[in-house]
Design goal:
Shape: globular
Number of helices: 4
Distance between the termini: 63 Å
Largest sheet: 5 strands, antiparallel
Helix content: 25-40%
Order of helices and strands: HEEEEHHEHEEEE
Radius of gyration: 19 Å
Strand content: 15-25%
Oligomer: single chain
Bound molecules: zinc ion
């Protein structure tokens, strides 16, 4: 039994040592770094049980912030927006200022989670993020990104 546990730990350590954190992704809930090897859409730590059997589920915890005092919620909101800013910058660097819906999905940029979402009568949607605005054209499924003027 002991042997197996040791073996298991060894495997975990080897796995761990191969992970890199160049993209500097962090869990939106607890700020723990997320390895580059994790799926691109991962925003939270993976759910796990600690030694006492207590469940740690950052995604659920994060969504519970709605019950928390406003100041904390704002902190989370800013963290979310910072995440989107980082994702948008990364996407622009690879894809340019005109992207497809697939590109947005690949970079986990969620338009409904923008600070403000306006939908025009012609179906064009304008999502306001912290530093960028994304204008979406439903007929062509394309999205144009513009940077806000410096204030
Ligand atoms: Zn976490």
């Amino acid at each position: 039994m002991l042997y197996f546990r040791k073996k298991c730990n060894e495997n975990m350590n080897t796995q761990f040592s191969q992970l890199t954190y160049d993209n500097q992704r962090k869990c939106l809930n607890c700020d723990k770094p997320i390895a580059d090897q994790e799926h691109a859409t991962r925003k939270y730590c993976e759910k796990y049980y600690d030694q006492s059997g207590k469940v740690h589920d950052c995604k659920t915890d994060h969504h519970r912030t709605i019950d928390k005092p406003e100041r904390e919620v704002q902190g989370t909101l800013i963290r979310d927006q910072k995440f989107f800013t980082k994702q948008i910058i990364e996407m622009i660097s690879k894809k340019g200022y005109e992207v497809t819906t697939d590109d947005l999905n690949a970079y986990d940029i969620s338009l409904p989670e923008s600070l403000k979402l306006e939908i025009k009568s012609n179906g064009i949607a304008i999502s306001h993020f912290l530093q960028y605005t994304i204008t979406s054209y439903p007929t062509t499924n394309t999205h144009k990104i513009t940077r806000h003027e410096q204030q």
